[in-house]
Amino acid sequence: MEKAIHYIIEFLIGAPEYANMIGYTGDRSLWSKYKVVIVPSDFFNEGVFGTSNSMPKLPLQEINGIPILFGEPVIAKQNDIVIVKADIIASSFFLLTRYEETINKKRDIHGRFIGKDSLPYRAGFIDRCVVDEYGELLRSCLNLTGVEVKNLDHKFSCVMTHDADKIEQYQNLRGFVGGIVHNHFKDAFVSLFGGIEKDLLYTFPWMKSIENEVPNLLSKVFIRVPNTTSIYDKPYYSLSSNGIKRLFELYPNYGLHISYEAGLNPELIAGEKQKLELAGACKITQCRNHYLTSREPEDMMALVDCGITDDYTMGYADVAGFRLGTCKPVKWINPRTCFLTTLSLHSLVVMDCTLDRSEYMNFNYDDAYQYCLKLINTVRRHNGEWVGLWHNSSVSVLSGGYQRELFKNIIQSLA
Ligand SMILES: [Zn+2]
């Protein structure tokens, strides 16, 4: 618990050398040891923590325009010490660990927590990095005591990711016949006999060529391992197929796309990781769940146990924004045990289908583009990491939607 609290203070302040100047205690006899003291609310108390009594009450109070989940919106100076009664430690813990999902057990048909049920959405700040705003507030409190907090080394970065769900359309007889039936005879013919790179669904080389135009953009692909029993894991592809071999070359920084079935049964993740490692002769340390079905917060432990160091699942399928309240990679803390782990969570800020599906945000092109720009600017302002997810299928000319155009324009705006 103490380690987790110390980590959150370090995370907020952004530089470890200032962490010892900040105390988190209600014991007044200890306050003189610190320059800034954050007074704990009852969130972590026995009988409150882990129960429905720990849930914040809406509407939330605000301090300097920032919503606080716990404590009082008061900052006072007392004998050169700044006393912060807004419990930004418990508030950060709540957001960074998905604590809410351990209390509210409602899930969608895929077992996922629903973004529109989340506190950040209901309280109207899903598009803000509230935890990073707490960090700014804490730095300004240190400034009040005369400590000059030096500029942080964080720099804006962007990561474009792709989940390889269905990689090809016409590479087998069934797809070819389907193409003929749908009057795509020429495309089907060219693709069947021209190889994977001519397949209209295999848009990875096209995406990569656009991504290469932005020097600071990192791009990666998450690859699935075949042969589970869930229908949601179809279609299967062979890890030794030409399409996958080419993906290994195009995106050497690839990770595991954890199957739907392993989302249900996290003990299967280690085996999937091993198979992908064998196929690509490369150690796998990154992942994202298919359908974003990282169901229960404590399921992350399976990732830690099998040597995954970076997870990119943490976005909501139904609403784009900041599921963890931050745009900076953050170490996962188990919200039940408060155990601090080595796993880094990367907030998935926006997924293509979240924007255009009628059951999700149902945006037209202009609204989708404007919303994406807003999220990009928010991440820029906090010098954080913007992570997007566009599928090879959504940018295919076969999809018929606006994602191909949007993808190009988003990449440009990241430059
Ligand atoms: Zn997927």
Structure description:
The chain has 415 residues and is α/β, with parallel strands linked by helices. It is built from 15 helices and 15 strands. Helix 6 packs antiparallel against helix 7 and helix 14 runs parallel beside helix 15. Zinc ion (ZN) binds next to loops.
What is the molecular shape?
A: elongated
Q: How is the biggest beta sheet arranged? A: 9 strands, mixed
Mean pLDDT: 93
Number of helices: 15
CATH architecture of the largest domain: Alpha-Beta Barrel
Give the SSE layout:
Layout: H1 2-13, E1 22-24, E2 36-38, E3 61-63, E4 66-68, E5 71-78, E6 81-86, H2 88-96, H3 100-103, H4 119-122, H5 130-144, E7 157-164, H6 173-181, H7 185-194, H8 204-211, E8 217-223, H9 242-250, E9 255-258, H10 260-264, H11 269-280, E10 286-289, H12 300-305, E11 310-311, E12 330-333, E13 340-345, E14 350-351, H13 352-356, H14 365-381, E15 385-389, H15 403-414
Parallel strand pairs: 1-2, 2-6, 7-8, 7-15, 8-9, 9-10, 10-11, 11-13, 14-15
Antiparallel strand pairs: 3-4, 5-6, 12-13
Helix pairs in contact: 6-7, 14-15
Residues 163, 165, 257, 290-291 line the site of zinc ion (ZN).
